[in-house]
Structures
1.
Amino acid sequence: MKRIAAGITLLLLAIVGIGVTYVVQRSSAPYIAAEQRVIDSRKLLDMLATDTYDNQPLEQPLTLSDIALSHSTLVGGYRATRAGQPVAVLLRSQTQGYAGPIELLIAIDANGKLLGVKTLKQTETPALGGHIADWPNSWLAAFSGKSNTEPTDNGWALKKDQGQFDQIAGATITSRAAINAIHDALRYFDEHRAALLGVGP
């Protein structure tokens, strides 16, 4: 009889324990999810100074049209605002590198100047084109401040192609792909400025 009572007691304790665990997990899940979203957001938005925007850009993706560009394809876009005014647009761009697709996040300010570029995905050769994934990335940082027209179209190329930019050492194809995708994104911004910023034409 004592064994049965002890067994029932253990069973009840197990049920209570499972129930408490379930309730705790359910009640903390939204908080954990919110914290994870903040972490993910900062990882994607670390090209933007935190005091330059006050919305949650990733929670309000833009609807993009004409996404097939000359050398790349846009796979997403976001608008950063402060006090309701647009301060930057972030475009996710996919282009073909040496070993496979490269996905870049390209941040452009409201005036069409490049704020920064970050590699989100790539399968380039380690120690060569794979350096495009380094963060921070001194090679990608060299594009900051550039725009669709600064330099001119001819300048948006590698120096070995009579352009203005150095290449990642030993990674000509990767470098060309990134330069072309960045220029594509800046050109797209200029052509769709009003829609991207959410302002009148």
Note: Residues 1-45 form one domain.
2.
Amino acid sequence: MHSKLSVDQLVDRVMAELEKRIASSPSPSPTPSRSLPSEERESSGGSVEGSTEAVEEAFGGIRMSHVPSSKWEEGVSELIASTPARIGVWRAGTRPLTREWLHFRCDHAAAVDSIYGSVSQKLLDEYKLFTVETCFVNTENYLKRPDMGRIITEKGVRVILERCERRPQVQIVISDGLSANAVTANLADVYPSLLDSLSGVGLSTGTPFFVRGGRVAVMDHIGDLLEPEVLVLLIGERPGLVSSKSMSAYMCYRPRAGTVESSRTVLSNIHAGGTAPVEAGAHMGTIVRKMIEQRTSGVHLE
């Protein structure tokens, strides 16, 4: 059985293979018009000068500027350190550097996989989460018809009413939303932390469950069914090229049909490179307690 590789490990292997092929191929005739930086020669098919250490420095996992002879090298380095955005990636002629292009393609593929992926039943069973579905039908329809991800199916409604406690203080719901990978990556950290934080502030929870194909406003339909004081929805965010595993926590005091978006409180960017999942779960308990004390949420919460 093959071991699972990370994106960085996969890119490193591809780059190592490219380096072998470049090293074994005849060197092209020198071009008198201009001297290319080593990164540009790599991507345009020429040989890379320097030792193995130099190659590893050029294509290693450390984020660094590839801009040759930068007029503001210190400023560019500060920008790169302050954001995960693609800054200072440079180019090879009119093309991106090979390594940057591979990372871009990997990140894009991860984003697509998040949308079309699914949460494993093993993970849901581990936390005793039963599953209901919205009227989303399938992923293609889900993307075109957000309204259908806000309504639980008739079968799902019956299951919720049969298995869930009515009028709990806090109802927790998990949904894949636009990123199944977000649930897979973060649930094991954020969910136990959330339960501990709610227990720590003296709040009880109802019967948690998983909604497949859910949108944020599905919490309004669930609110009508179970009438909780506060509903907490942990849902996968729209994936991007920085992270395909980002989760949001939407919290609302007494959500019902017709609830406006400004009445929801959200804690977003919950993932390893953003708001730490364990910290997010711990902070949610404090927020929910304030909602119950003040009997409100969203922009009206102090």
Note: The beta strands are 91-92, 95-96, 130-133, 170-175, 209-212, 230-236, 247-253, 264-270.
3.
Amino acid sequence: MNKSNARMGWLFASPYLVYSLIFFLFPLLWATYLAFTNWNLISPDYEFVGVQNFVQAFFSESVRAAFFVTYKFLAMFVPIAVIGALCLALIISALPRFKGLFSVAFFLPYLASGVASAIVVNGILSYNSPFNIWLRSTFGLDINWLGSPVLAALIIALMMAWKFMGYYALLFVAGLESIPKDVYEAARMDGAVGWKKFWYVTIPMLYPSFYTVTILAVGLMFGIFTEPYVLTGGGPDLATHTWQLEIYQQAFERLHAGYGTSIAVINSIVTFASILVFRKILEVWGAKHGWE
């Protein structure tokens, strides 16, 4: 019976395993090989160059910019997205009716095309847009929104937070709905009401949701491409130049596929290490509140 159950389990898992094998494992092995070559994406020949691509990437100004820009986006996006999603979840949970309707409404931006959203934002912030004309005529403000290194990065972070907050809010709503009512009753008997109840009961009990949302948000920052590509092209002065932009430019615009692949490998390592650090921090916080 156990062998039969095991075979049945492998049978049902086989579509995902085959999918992972074809679209993840094989490309990973192929990319690892390409990272040590000087392939130009067109030639049938692959020149083996050893670790030269990695050395070149280590001293590259644009790669260093991508490294620091990612953490800049992370520092802006993660707090905004997590706190904003939590606030949305609290609002939805407090609604007496139509919770599902409002949940779907907040989730809709997540389904919107990143290209379409970026084009709309670009139109709103363009020099001759009604918004900028109103700012100039009313307040005398002439702001180059996407020409400022600080503002351009902040706009992209806010745009992505708007897109993903609804999705993250659903995870928080699920966490709020799973908190047992008797926990709140016991806390109220101990004098934990209002802000104390939220800080000392709700927040610790939402640890699984915080864990999931934070890891998803951190991982997302290492794969940003659409928004900076459409809005700024990585500028100004590499202020919004991300890993994915660097990989795309090297591999598909300059046809340095081997070098671009080596950058992708470095990006994977940095992503894995960063997520591991955040995981450890979250696990330490969870352990202090009884989550083992």
Note: Residues 61-94 form the longest helix (34 residues).
